[in-house]
Amino acid sequence: MNLIEVKNLSVSYKSHGKEILALRDVNANFSYGDYVSIVGENGAGKSTLIKSILGLVKIKSGKIIFNKLKKCEVSYVPQFNNVFSTLPTKVKEIVFTGILKPGFLNFFVSKKEKTKALKYLDLLNINSILERLIPELSGGQVKKVLLARALCSDPKVLVLDEPCASLDEHSSCEFCEILKKINKIKNITIIIVTHNIKYAQKISSKILFLEEGKLKPTEHHN
């Protein structure tokens, strides 16, 4: 079943008074339990595609259809940034914010919800750093914390924008293996933007290759 359908999607932005097409008539489907890697060179439109799905950019034409999927059932793990890495916040405080619903003002986390969060921390092997501050962590650990936070909302779809950027090869491979494990165990649809085509070919059920805003017709099925 297709959870998300992208139909004839075009997205543009203005640069120095000129309109630049970031995506051109892109068509793609994301099904239940998929592991989809979106690959391509810098500026190919990879991040624009996932931001369109997330409703973070304005669509020029075309449409995105959610089938039996609510927007709150889509979790997003953004790229790592230096601002986040300097926050004097404990790991548990970041992770537990993933439990809170939009517009929910009560910051009390129930025992049941804590147990759920701790299970994800255990799955990601970061339960031992629960009390540590974010600036004390390695880049790989921070990625896992953000992933645990996203999983706490019980998503049906997990979207990640270059999650392995700035990680060494070992940490990058470890993180991708964790994502594959989550995909299999939880049957969560994963959409990931990556430059690592070799690894994408190894673990993805589908690869979407973008070039200058256009989707190439060839798709990989694992």
In a few lines, what is going on in this structure?
The protein is of the alpha/beta class. The chain is 31% helix and 27% strand.
CATH level-3 fold name: Rossmann fold
Number of domains: 1
Low-pLDDT stretches are none
Strand order of the largest sheet: 5-6-7-3-8-9
Number of strands: 9
The CATH class label is Alpha Beta
User: Helix tally?
Assistant: 7
Outline type? globular
CATH superfamily: P-loop containing nucleotide triphosphate hydrolases
Task: Report, as a whole number of angstroms, the end-to-end distance.
Answer: 18 Å
Q: What fraction strand? A: 25-35%
SS-derived structural category: alpha/beta
Can you walk through the features of this model?
- The protein has one domain (33-57, 70-215): P-loop containing nucleotide triphosphate hydrolases (Rossmann fold, 3-Layer(aba) Sandwich), CATH 3.40.50.
- It has 7 helices and 9 strands; from the N terminus they run E-E-E-H-E-E-H-H-H-H-E-H-E-H-E-E.
- The chain has helices spanning 46-53, 82-85, 91-96, 111-123, 139-151, 169-186, 197-203; strands at 2-15, 18-31, 35-39, 61-66, 74-77, 157-161, 189-193, 206-211, 214-215.
- The strands form 2 sheets. A 6-stranded mixed beta sheet has the order 5-6-7-3-8-9, with helices on both faces. Strands 2-1-4 form a 3-stranded antiparallel beta sheet, covered by helices on one side.
